[in-house]
Amino acid sequence: xxxxxxxxxxxxxxxxxxxxxxxxxxxxxxxxxxxxxxxxxxxxxxxxxxxxxxxxxxxxxxxxxxxxxxxxxxxxxxxxxxxxxxxxxxxxxxxxxxxxxxxxxxxxxxxxxxxxxxxxxxxxxxxxxxxxxxxxxxxxxxxxxxxxxxxxxxxxxxxxxxxxxxxxxxxxxxxxxxxxxxxxxxxxxxxxxxxxxxxxxxxxxxxxxxxxxxxxxxxxxxxxxxxxxxxxxxxxxxxxxxxxxxxxxxxxxxxxxxxxxxxxxxxxxxxxxxxxxxxx
Length: 280
Description:
The chain is α+β, with helices and mostly antiparallel strands and 280 residues long. Helix content is 32%, strand content 26%.
């Protein structure tokens, strides 16, 4: 693969079309980010990077990322808001998304920017594992229906609840992840120490809730929510409600996501002084 920042409108529109293919956007819905917006983003100092196969004579863009420059509302700290990163289905599984994110880390550090932020769907297991374990980012907030109704094949008809993550690029967690030393939580050890299961995947792929008031709680998500959304919208809607009522309520109430296992278990911990808000 070849990674490169876009250079003019031709690259910008190629990236725009790639985003639309990844998210299943059509002309009626409008582009995820049109080419002219990507050009403007780079003029304003933002990042737009594309991935191409080196051996492709047409130079097709198979993955891309776009990020805005931002400043923290309270502290003024600069960061890049990584708005969108996508890889075409036929190129998935080849490490392109990972390469784009590590390139983004280099891009930011070269410019003196030490933090990247973005949101992701908490039900998409591969993204949760990649973001929190593979990159060493931290989930810091749960945001309800961030984007409202979205007219694409991925999100149509479902609420757009998201986890906000912060990637501190020079932190020990990020450095360990960069060296392949990211540590997954020990689920058996946590259970032995008193952690209790709160949400699991039932035999019918629907969410199964078990009331618990433990200070550490475990929330499981489906292996492939995207495929489940295609074949069983009722189950998908039930998962949207369940993750909002558990993970969402807990994080909003002050509990922390301390990690995620490779097989899709979020670990929640209630810091000292934080009282459970309700018998959820």
